[in-house]
Amino acid sequence: MTNLEPLIKKIIAGIGDDPDREGLIETPKRVAKSFEKLYGGYKKDPKKAVTVFDNEGYDEMIIARDIDFYSMCEHHMLPFFGKVYVGYLPDDKIIGLSKIPRMVEIFARRLQNQERLTKQIADTLMELLKPNGVGVVIKATHLCMKARGVEKQNCEITTSSFTGPFRSNLNTRSEFLDLIK
Length: 181
Ligand code: ZN
Prior knowledge:
Layout: H1 5-14, H2 27-38, E1 52-54, E2 62-73, E3 79-89, E4 93-95, H3 99-108, E5 111-112, H4 114-129, E6 133-142, H5 143-146, E7 157-162, H6 165-168, H7 170-179
Parallel strand pairs: 2-5
Antiparallel strand pairs: 1-4, 2-3, 3-6, 6-7
């Protein structure tokens, strides 16, 4: 993202520092490079990053928990990060479990809000697997809340997206929430 370097230099000047002083001279290059990672999810299609298998009769809940993610909030371009918990009740298709973190990674490496990230993961699993239901929970800390000195410094935000019995059946939902505690 070398086209960003002059813009980052302008931001440094704009905040009142000297972009030509020694400590900052390489900074635009480093920031542009870090953006390739932080915003690397735009060029990737999460649906192509996953492999789907035929289910051989497994009909209990499948859970992937404690999936670490790092994303950037679209309102402030500051990091928010935490853990994703995914559960689903399979029908004819199952997903390689290592592929769920890969899908999370692609959606997270964009300008995001936590609600959309949660829903995109649930929607994509619904589309790819057509399972009986999906539950996605994200627990995250937002630096835009902590670093800007907003009240409730240690507040953790939880979002969820439920479909099928995860939404309509209290037992299914409780089982999932118990298993991700
Ligand atoms: Zn924010």
